[in-house]
Design brief:
single chain, alpha/beta, Rossmann fold, two-stranded parallel ribbon, oxidoreductase, Zinc-binding dehydrogenase, oxidoreductase activity, acting on the CH-OH group of donors, NAD or NADP as acceptor, metal ion binding
């Protein structure tokens, strides 16, 4: 992933792999960027301090709603067949995904899947 270092101003983390390499993921975030955590990790996060300090990167989290709100949302999207407009790419193709984004080719959002 060296060719995509410091490429993204915001990284939205919506799920976790127990074996995630946080040092590598933090390398995606550009200077003054943000890592936004939108899921509760199963294990403690181990992130080196220099990932934040040297580039003034911030990490923030958000619980978008409680369990009842989440259930209502899923019921609504299921009832109305609502689907996200995304392109999925495996994390193993991060370099290709970065080029895809730099070239302005994504349609809507590109989602990097760390499980692939």
């Amino acid at each position: 992933m060296k060719s995509v270092r410091h490429f993204m101003d915001i990284v939205l983390c919506t799920s976790f792999d127990k074996n995630a390499n946080w040092s590598e993921l933090m390398e995606l975030v550009d200077y003054h960027g943000k890592m936004v955590i939108l899921a509760i990790p199963e294990v403690p996060l181990v992130i080196p301090g220099n990932a934040f300090i040297s580039r003034n990167v911030s990490m923030v989290g958000s619980m978008m709603g409680g369990l009842e709100t989440t259930r209502e949302m899923f019921d609504f999207v299921g009832k109305h067949n609502i689907r996200p407009w995304i392109e999925e790419m495996p994390m193993s193709d991060a370099t290709a995904a970065a080029k895809h984004a730099k070239d302005g080719r994504p349609r809507f959002r590109v989602v990097m899947d760390a499980s692939k």
